[in-house]
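ok trying again, last paste got cut off:
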Amino acid sequence: MAAANDLRKGMCIRYNGNPAIVLEVMHRTPGNLRAFVQAIIRYIGTGKSADVRFGSTDKVETVEVHRDSLEFSYKDQTGFHFMNPESYETITFDAAFVGDAKEYLSENLSVEVLYVEGKAASLDLPASVELKVAESADGVRGDSANNVMKPATLETGKIVQVPLFIKEGEVVKIDTRTGNYMGRA
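nice, full thing came through this time. structure:
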């Protein structure tokens, strides 16, 4: 148990029986009222955020958390297989856990996995990934008005809008937060 004054960004606490990550912490002392700690938390299980208020002397239960860096190996009918680069141990996650991240997973991509109380809770991708263009229509001469884009299918099956000059086989950089084209790799 820790005091609410000791809360810091990135800590993991148990609130209403569910583990949550602290996103922001503000210590407030309004005039001649008692001080309090206002925090924005995100529940790990659901991904929903909440704005909570603690008295400055309230006790908060902290939760054991650690992060592991894993490398994506391959996907098959049993799930997505990742390897720990230090111990060479293989860990398999199902498609529901991986979620939308599957659109960016390429061989040997390094990801961060958050473990809460020994169980995998979330998978964090790097800010951008480099993927090969598997299929793309040719740009037509005369289509070069202003910033004209065309759809391109990447090696993972994700379809993104890319400029006309991008051809099949080229490697492009994709923002994993928005899913948008960033440039050539």
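cool. Helices lie at 95-98. The chain has three domains: 2-62, 67-124, 128-184.
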